[in-house]
Amino acid sequence: ASDEQVYYNVCGYGNNPIDLYERLSGATFAWTVKLGEEVVIDVEYDFDQFRKAGRVWENPDGGICVTASERFSLPGTYTLTGKLSHPSGWELTVTKTVTVKAQEITLEPAEESSTADELSTEGNNGLHLV
Fold first, then answer.
1. pLDDT on residue 112
2. Which residues, other chains included, contact 95 with Cβ-Cβ below 8 Å and sequence gap of 6+?
3. What residues contact 39, with CB distance under 8 A and at least 6 apart?
4. Span 47-58, average pLDDT
5. How many C-beta neighbours within 10 Å does residue 114 have?
6. In the chain, what percentage of residues exceed pLDDT 90?
7. Alpha-carbon dihedral 115, 120, 125, 126, rounded to 10 degrees
8. Which residues of 12-37 are buried (b: 16+ CB within 10 A; e: fewer)?
């Protein structure tokens, strides 16, 4: 599986970031991750708390973005859904599919070991490996 972190952004755009922050205040960000049909992560965050924690950032294109990230330990196809919604009734939902492949492990051949005849018996009370 992957040890790579996958980042996922949900962004709102406007002409004025201060206006966007005001409009997003009170919103919630829901983050759901499914492996096939099984829900493996289902959490909801308050936008204002996310902002105070530094997980909201300004996009150079004029947007305000919320970022979530995950590491996936099992191979498979994951569906990531981010939903930004506000008590006034608007919402923005974005879905992304990520395929995690099994990690290949390559084992190197072991070094040849010594035989009992090649081992010195000095200092080991005459004991040797057989």
1. 58
2. 79, 80, 81, 82
3. 32, 33
4. 84
5. 9
6. 10
7. 60
8. beeeeeeebbebbeebbbbbbbbbee
The per-residue pLDDT for 94 is 86
How far does CA 123 lie from the centroid of its chain?
55
Contact criterion met (CB below 8 Å) for 80 and 96:
yes
Residue 108 host element (H or E): none
Q: Is residue 65 within 8 Å of 9, Cβ to Cβ?
A: yes
Q: 3-state DSSP call for residue 94?
A: strand
The amino acid at 19: D
Q: How confident is the model at residue 108 (pLDDT cuts 50, 70, 90)?
A: confident
